[in-house]
């Protein structure tokens, strides 16, 4: 039965427990960072940071809006990265959970192609092993009947894990509840992904790639037609 | 806190000012949002838009150090618009008391000021008394010297125009806050005020809180569920350490430290025991002598007898007016008057103000002992940047400390809940907990004294100290024992039995207790009540999340202080839906009431404010050093040249030191330093950061010193987001990365733009390239009552860095 | 017996998932799980179809209840004997397959029920521990079979009765519905959408050995004697399965199995979990502790 994670950003306070907890569980080494004028640090996802809380702030009239977005792989129901992969067994989808997993075989794959295929700009590469890296939904933990680390470490109760059908129900109910306070609230690409985000405002105010711009079924065919390449270019220009 | 964490959920309005609750006291915020879910308005007033602001109903930015102007405006709004709870104000506060004729207030100064000593003669502020020694009252409130009229006159000047010009808050926003909060003046509505270091760390810190007290009294918000004035305290156990007299001016249980003019115990007791002639006033502090004698018995054991004043003569005495707070200790240290000492649980070279001075002061010591988990800026002061280790004469001993999970004992949370923590694992290596370190050091010292003698031998040898540290046994000693068989009323108590509660402590030496407020927390019948984790409660208690069986709260497990003010004179709750206590069938139900007396209107009834000598909430409070009512003064360093409220710019009584070249303050409106700096903690690092900077994933998330500033200031200074800037004050310079953010807004003050910047204090040089102490900028000035330094407002300037060395 | 609904009820799904997970994780227990698994499944089907409490429930006085007077203190469960022949038709074949050693006795018992030699009323009485005798069937087997037969109906009635006292304070370590002793405790994550900060520890529920009602109880205490001293409270566990433990008390020498679901993605079915904890249970007994109440298999 496919699993899903609900991320309610209206409860998130950007304490970064998920970011730190994820790193510690994976035993990733610390990345030397610099203060670059924002709390968001490291500045982007990387081979040792598969979960990153993104910060964005806006001044609207006299009102400040400060939004937090714990970014990571969405585990698409029909993952375009898998479609784009040319290496057999490199990108697989776990039948039991729906988790999209990058194996060591991805070292033979092309980062540009795979990253270009991702509407959320998630995949990164380990510079040493050349393996492509992203969140694996803590498949090791799930198989041991344990909660994914980000969900476990979320002190604010902003994240829940469970059966996709139950999580969708929970997400819809929460959306209904917050609509009163935030009329623009929405669930991002809920039918296409397993990481279901609830945002209170226009998704672009959270993060450029918070939502897939073409929320149509992502097939290998449309992918090969280059539907996502403009997005990829945007991603590149953003990172300079 | 007068109330407690879970009680915040009962509020109809939550007013957070001088606190960033969501980031620094997250558990408190759990209950803030519970209240919000039930329809409460959550107001955040703070210079910076933080994560607390993001989750509040609205945020109002205010210039740091202008809280009294802001709150004074609220007091005026409440009085002008008759938003106060009239019966409560008349019956439970001193609104009707007559202020004596010698009281006056002119141009920023109250009567009785001695400019040479920077001190007031407080006797000039006394109430007028009748021939029987009772305070004169006019219950019609017509007399011009009635407190309520004196109060109204005092805050008459705090109109929207001036308050807005001083604070930088628009008049519209002022009214928005005043209106929303004053709505809790109705009998069945409650508002809570949450504050933290954003209020205490000012030269007017105590008066900030006094004014919140006045507002809460006017609105009838004391004693009720969802009300009160609530200092958020945290993991450093500030509540517990304050109860046990962390501060130099007290001995455990909120008694003044002895001074040299109180030569005998009798003189001490006389000077410190208030007297009232009003039979309806409980005047709880009349019991002080019992607590003092029991404390002395706890300290000196069998040695303490009535004949030797229970060992009173062995206590160290301060000279009158002597200040031994850290501001002054480090001043004396800088002047070479201190040879050595112990520092535990502190990183003063990083976290005390004016740290350039503090660091040099530590250089003057011959020896220093530090108990710490990690090396930090204090343990390694001798090798700090710019210092020559070869020239450092200080020998520093670093004692490895046990970490939190490696020791057992109690922590008292903000809500006065005494809670036991169990040891999870044994300390690694040679680490020990601090209690053990003290016991072992003192055992050696005493052995040496016994063999070789030394100065003040009785002071060292007569103390009853344990052979080894046992947290459980300490908790019992804090509660206290009967020291001999006694009969009190009908009941007999045996020697060595635990005292069941502080009402049974005695002046004759038959009881001991190391801190009276905790007496009753460890009983013969139930054992260590700090260990209780029982969530059961009566339906009445459940309505207000009282949880009386979870842990134990001082005093006597009372969860809401002054709860007799939550009922009318016949004992009926003002808000029956959220009743704290109620008089039913001849007894009190609900919370533990403030004393067993029946309701005020009945025979034997008492006034609700039992800790006040006259039994009434003090709208006018003649006890503080700097005035009976709060007055707005600018911070010690201010961008203004004129204080529109008076000719008095800064607090006339504020504490200053002058021992070093670093003890300098900007002139008012100094053009060289036009920017207001405020400093704060952060979520990712804890306090001075000496622990959390050693957590790689935390350092990755918050790696370096930053300075938050508005886009307008950045543009003015030609600074781009992420540039390294140098922030300078008259006392030092700090390199920091510019974080240009709309969360900081420029203020319009008296018609001019005033910029404010904010910096965290968690970054220090022992972690390379992460920056160094922001406290090199802050100044050595303090509140006259507490000497808490003014970390929250000083003047700086900044420019883009030419050369970067610290980052 | 009504036809089972098309959608598998959640409780059954949990039993089946837990069973298959347990068999994979603990191959040594395949025989035991294979014996009790089908019985648990069949019992759950019966419970789903059982009538529950019929008519108005017993009057609950909130004050008396708070003092520790359980719901059925003055009455008892409603008679379910009319349903027992149907239940026997489904459950007895399963039991005969699961416990071949008992097969002859079960056959005798089924025949006695068919012939009227054993009335459904007597069978129900046996289920509640009253002395009933059937020639050719040992008292132990009769009691085991009868209580397995009555149990689905008891559990179903208890569900309805527990609803009567929902939210009322209950401090006892015994069941608020039937007064039974717990044979299991479960720590569950309680989600409250209004919570800004989620507790990670989970709340402890005790589970009744006779009607499977669960009720919250203080975490750090021995339900046997109320002891709260950490030195006296012992936790036995297998490091490989840290969420399964036996909470033992040195003071009263009792123990209670505990399933800690705080960190688990899916909470296993407590009955299946109790089966997987059989080694822990044995260890606790070896160390001289006695269970607060037995599981059905404890006597076999």
Explain briefly what this protein structure is:
With 240 residues, chain A is of the alpha+beta class. Chain A contains 8 helices and 10 strands.
Average pLDDT metric of chain A: 89
Backbone structural class of chain B: alpha/beta
What kind of sheet is the major sheet of chain A?
Answer: 4 strands, mixed
Alpha carbon gyration radius of chain A: 17 Å
- Basic shape of chain B: globular
Q: What's the CATH first level of the largest domain in chain A?
A: Alpha Beta
Helix-strand sequence of chain A: EHEEHEEHEEHHEHEEHH
SS summary, helix count of chain B: 22
Number of strands of chain A: 10
Query: What class do helices, strands and sheet pairing of chain A give?
Result: alpha+beta
Count every helix of chain A, treating DSSP H or I runs of 4 or more residues as helices.
8
| Low-confidence blocks of residues of chain A | 215-240
Apparent shape of chain A = globular
β-sheet strand percentage of chain A:
15-25%
Numbering strands along the chain, what is their spatial order in the largest sheet of chain B? 26-28-27-33-25-31
Which pair of chains has the greatest number of interface residues, and how are they split between the two chains?
A-B, 28 and 34 residues
Strand order of the largest sheet of chain A: 8-1-10-9
Which structural traits does this protein have?
heterotrimer, A: 240 residues, alpha+beta, Alpha-Beta Plaits, two-stranded antiparallel ribbon, 10 strands, disordered C terminus, B: 807 residues, alpha/beta, 6-stranded mixed sheet
Task: Characterise the protein shown here.
- The complex is a heterotrimer of chains A (240), B (807) and C (300).
- Chain A is α+β, with helices and mostly antiparallel strands and 240 residues long.
- Chain A has eight helices and ten strands.
- Chain A has helices at 17-26, 80-84, 111-117, 139-143, 149-153, 164-179, 220-224, 229-239, and strands spanning 3-8, 52-60, 63-71, 91-93, 100-102, 124-125, 132-133, 159-163, 186-187, 195-199.
- A four-stranded mixed β-sheet of chain A has the order 8-1-10-9. In chain A, strands 2-3 form a two-stranded antiparallel sheet.
- The model of chain A is unreliable at 215-240 (pLDDT under 50).
- With 807 residues, chain B is α/β, with parallel strands linked by helices.
- Helix content of chain B is 23%, strand content 15%.
- Chain B has 22 helices and 33 strands.
- In chain B, strand 22 and strand 23 form a beta hairpin.
- In chain B, helix 4 packs antiparallel against helix 7 and helix 14 packs across helix 16.
- Chain B is globular and about 80 Å long.
- Chain C has 300 residues and is α/β, with parallel strands linked by helices.
- Helix content of chain C is 40%, strand content 12%.
- Chain C has helices at residues 10-25, 30-49, 62-66, 84-98, 103-115, 120-127, 139-164, 270-276, 278-286, and strands at 182-188, 203-208, 214-216, 233-237, 244-249, 254-260, 290-291.
- In chain C, strands 1, 2, 3, 4, 5, 6 and 7 form a seven-stranded mixed β-sheet that branches.
- In chain C, helix 2 packs antiparallel against helix 8.
- Chain C is globular.
- The two termini of chain C are 29 Å apart.
- Residues 1-6 of chain C have low confidence and may be disordered.
- Chains in contact: A-B, A-C, B-C.
- The interface between A and B is medium-sized, with 28 and 34 residues.
